[in-house]
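Incident log, support desk, overnight shift.

02:14 A customer reports that sequence design results differ from what the structure should imply. Their input is reproduced verbatim below. On-call engineer (initials T.W.) acknowledged and began investigating.
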């Protein structure tokens, strides 16, 4: 609900969460066909597979990013694994991408799947969490429309007149 803007961080007491830092990003890990995971286990439903994919992704990604001081909050939304990242200003987007690329490579090799990700920009303040989620959704939509399998990131640029231009970048591992 926080990611989608249905509740705000000011309601933290009601929902029992607390952020220790002021920088945020959102990453969506996406597997186009969840039945590609655990293909040998015919009795496992797609919702069970999504649960295990979320568990695997959270464990690996959280461990990598915790070494850099990043807190990872993982959930599933619309058959995708979504991670809200909370960190200090000293953590760079390159640190996050490097960890995501490592986790992606490890998971894809270990489980013989084609997991990919869409990464938002970085914003200060919890009020911007829904905007970050929307950025990651926009990147994912862009990837789907163009048939891009590589991980991608949302990037904001300004032109010579200081007007905001959004751009989506492909990350090559």
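02:41 Re-run completed on a clean worker. Output:
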């Amino acid at each position: 609900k926080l990611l989608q803007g249905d509740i705000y961080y000011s309601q933290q007491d009601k929902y029992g969460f607390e952020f220790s830092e002021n920088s945020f990003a959102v990453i969506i890990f996406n597997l186009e066909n969840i039945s590609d995971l655990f293909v040998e286990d015919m009795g496992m439903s797609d919702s069970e597979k999504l649960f295990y994919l979320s568990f695997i992704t959270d464990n690996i990604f959280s461990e990598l990013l915790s070494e850099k001081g990043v807190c990872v909050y993982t959930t599933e939304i619309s058959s995708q694994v979504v991670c809200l990242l909370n960190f200090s200003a000293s953590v760079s987007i390159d640190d996050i991408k490097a960890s995501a690329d490592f986790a992606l490579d490890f998971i894809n090799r270990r489980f013989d799947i084609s997991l990919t990700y869409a990464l938002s920009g970085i914003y200060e303040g919890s009020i911007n969490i829904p905007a970050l989620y929307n950025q990651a959704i926009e990147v994912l939509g862009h990837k789907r429309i163009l048939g891009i399998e590589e991980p991608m990131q949302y990037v904001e640029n300004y032109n010579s007149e200081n007007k905001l231009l959004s751009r989506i970048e492909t990350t090559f591992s």
